[in-house]
Amino acid sequence: MIKAIIIDVDGVIVGEKIGFNSPYPHPEVIRRLKSIREKGITISLCTAKPHYSVQKIIEDVGLNNLHITNGGGVIIDPIDNIILKKHIIKSSDALKVIEKYLSNDVYTEFYSLEEYFIQENQKSDLTKTHTHILQREPHIVTSLIKEVKKQEIVKIMPIAKNEEDKKRLVSLFEPFKNDLTLSWGVHPVAFPHLFGIITAKGISKKQAVIEIGNTINIKPDEMLGIGDSVSDWQFIEQCGYAGAMGNASEELKDLVHKKGEQFFIGKAVDENGILDIFNFFSL
């Protein structure tokens, strides 16, 4: 029996059709989520975004429960103003990795609990795209390096231009892999850009799902995890049930087959494929 659902946001309930399912899910998806929540099933959004970027979804559906934001860096219930976890990156570690990316001309952002920051000389069309995705303007500063010492940083986000550039960014991260964690996310609106998600060591969506389960006393095998990218497997693997979107990577589709009969692949996000997954599991 499914008692909780862990849902990635971008590429799952938010797509690329502006006004249809971007920057906000389709009304039918919102209605179904609300109906499921009213049955007493916990629905936790699991995203690399900060909480304020998914606040409207949380409020409209009535999801007064814990959510995974900033790639696991923050676990929060913004309706009841409860912060279960806020994993701060050490200033010394943040300084080193940000310096590395900036010196190699990588578009870089960093995030506190309530704001995100970019350097003035990096402002570009990508800034506009990410503003649409996050539904909030960045805090623009003269120097990210100087700002590091003033903020509690929960996430650093270097952005790759494409898959080839991602390899370069991964290589640049190599000296920091023992102190920080790097994962990757995508967004249909920003493609082919890829978003690096740097958190404190050992902090990820996987770890956050475990923490939520322990807090609300729901076992992992009573959870349904739904995603669209291979990085989502880190949390879906923990769940007893798995769903993947039609637009999901082939690698993720292959991985969810490991769940045997307890998985389903729905249509693409732009066809509201998550409804297929809910139907399959009788939700």
TrEMBL record:
* Native source organism of the sequence: Candidatus Roizmanbacteria bacterium RIFCSPLOWO2_01_FULL_35_13
Which Gene3D superfamilies does the annotation name?
Answer: 3.30.1240.10, HAD superfamily/HAD-like
Which molecular function GO terms apply here? Answer: magnesium ion binding; phosphatase activity
A GO cellular component annotated for this chain's UniProt record is:
cytosol
Q: Which Pfam families match?
A: Hydrolase_3
Residues annotated as signal peptide: none
Q: What is this protein called?
A: Uncharacterized protein
